[in-house]
Structure formats: C-alpha cells, structure tokens
C-alpha cells in the first residue's frame, strides 16, 4: 500500500518535494525525491529522531536516503545525522572542522541539554556526529536523476558562521532556508550568529529563489518572498545594518 505524505505528517510543497515540522523545537526537515535517490535536508535533534525521519523517507520514496544536506551546525538540525549511514553528507564549508573541535562539540551538547534534550541522547548524538564529506563554499548542483537537480548554496554567514540553503527548481521553485528564516518566532541570534552579514545572506537567498518561490524556514510555516524581505529589513533594523 502506498503511503501518502499527509499520512506521515509531511506537507507536500511541490511535486516530489516536501517537509515536516518536528516536535519539540518545531524544526523543519525537507525531502526531495529523485530517481532512485532522495535528499534529506537537516536531520533532526537526536539519533532516534533521525531514524524516524529515515524510516518515513524510505516509506515515501521506496528507497533509502542517498544524500543529506545540513543547513547549519545547531543540534536540532544535525544531531540525527548519524542515522543516515551510507548517505553522502553535505554542509557549508567549515562545518567539518567545527565538528572536529572538542570545544565546539561540547558547546553543541550544552546547548542541546540547555534546551531540554535528555543528556544521554545529547551524548549519544555528539559521539556519533559525522563530519560532512562534501564542503560547499559557493554553489554545488546535485543531480538526483530523473531530471531532478538541487542547488546547494553557501549564502552565510548569518544565523551562524556556516549557513547553507537548498534551491529546488520547478513550478514553484522551493528554497529550504535553514534558520536564516524563521516564521514561528523571531529569528534567534545566538553567540555564533554574525548579525552584520545576516541581511546580506537573505539578499542572496532572495536572489536565488526570486519573487515566485516558496521559502521553507527552519522553524514555522512556508512563506513567500515578501515575508523574507520583511524579515531581512527587520534584522537590518534590529542590528543596525545598512545596505
């Protein structure tokens, strides 16, 4: 029996493109289906959550997740990554080095526990956290087969020192924004944010997607270009950044 996106709690955004809002931190995970391939965008906040995402993706596509893109190095987006054994892992340049740093991994663990993740789950995820094999410094086109391509673009820094977005061409075009865009609350600027560059990162994101694209934030409902532009202007005002 074929399982539908809706039955598994996923929102189909375009043909072969969907996302789900994960419980706990309302974090988004995205899925792009190719021919015998599947790209997952962000991996959830624990190995258990990553395993559930993998199982759901396999039910929806009929095959395993072959590619994983991590938008930025925050626990709620990367701690499930080790559940995708065998997938080609992509991240913004510098994420691999960050994951190799003991201090950075301890900061990730502390942030997760401080936000309510069980310490045992945080320890498990940090110990298993994989280094992205593929480092995106500019743009990288993934060919998923069947005419499906996805453009990964390093548009940061902004929300963090390492921010990656994914553009899925089509009608409509879909842009997975990571936490450069948030809809369910004010964008969060933690100690690793680079506020002076964040508005420019959103300008690059808008240039990629254009006026008619659908923008999938890291947290919250799908938005349009006008919402992203308003958030860009609000961030510029909040941090005193001029064009």
Characterise the protein shown here.
There is one protein chain. The protein is of the alpha/beta class. It contains 7 helices and 12 strands. The longest helix is centred in the first third of the chain and has 15 residues, at 47-61. It is globular, with a radius of gyration of 17 Å. The termini are far apart.
Run of helices and strands:
EEEEHEHEHHHEEEEEHEH
* Strand composition percent: 15-25%
Mean pLDDT figure: 96
Contiguous helical run count: 7
What topology, given as strand order, has the largest sheet? 1-2-3-4-5-6-7
- CA distance, first residue to last residue: 53 Å
Please give the number of β-strands: 12
Helical residue percent band: 25-40%
Rg from C-alpha positions? 17 Å
Low-confidence stretches: none
Largest sheet: 7 strands, mixed
Shape: globular
Judged by helices, strands and strand pairing, the structural class is: alpha/beta
Entry keywords:
243 residues, alpha/beta, seven-stranded mixed sheet, five-stranded mixed sheet, 7 helices, globular
Give a quick precis of the structure.
About 30% of the residues lie in helices and about 25% in strands.
């Amino acid at each position: 029996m074929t399982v539908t996106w809706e039955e598994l709690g996923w929102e189909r955004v375009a043909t072969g493109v969907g996302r789900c809002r994960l419980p706990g931190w309302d974090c988004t995970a995205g899925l792009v289906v190719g021919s015998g391939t599947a790209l997952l965008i962000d991996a959830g906040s624990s190995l258990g959550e990553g395993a559930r995402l993998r199982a759901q993706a396999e039910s929806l596509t009929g095959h395993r997740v072959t590619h994983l893109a991590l938008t930025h190095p925050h626990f709620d987006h990367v701690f499930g990554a080790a559940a995708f054994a065998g997938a080609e892992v992509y991240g913004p340049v510098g994420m691999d080095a960050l994951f190799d740093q003991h201090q950075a991994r301890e900061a990730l663990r502390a942030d997760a526990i401080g936000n309510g993740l069980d310490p045992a789950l945080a320890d498990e995820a940090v110990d298993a956290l994989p280094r992205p094999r593929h480092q995106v410094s500019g743009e990288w086109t993934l060919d998923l087969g069947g005419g499906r391509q996805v453009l990964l673009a390093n548009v940061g820094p902004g929300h963090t020192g390492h921010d990656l977005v994914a553009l899925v061409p089509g009608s409509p075009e879909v842009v997975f924004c990571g936490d450069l865009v948030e809809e369910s609350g004010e964008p969060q600027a933690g100690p690793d944010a680079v506020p002076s560059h964040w508005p420019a990162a959103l300008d690059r994101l808008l240039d990629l997607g254009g006026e008619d694209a659908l923008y999938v934030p890291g947290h919250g409902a799908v938005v349009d270009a006008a919402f992203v532009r308003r958030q860009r202007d609000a961030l510029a005002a909040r941090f005193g950044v001029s064009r």
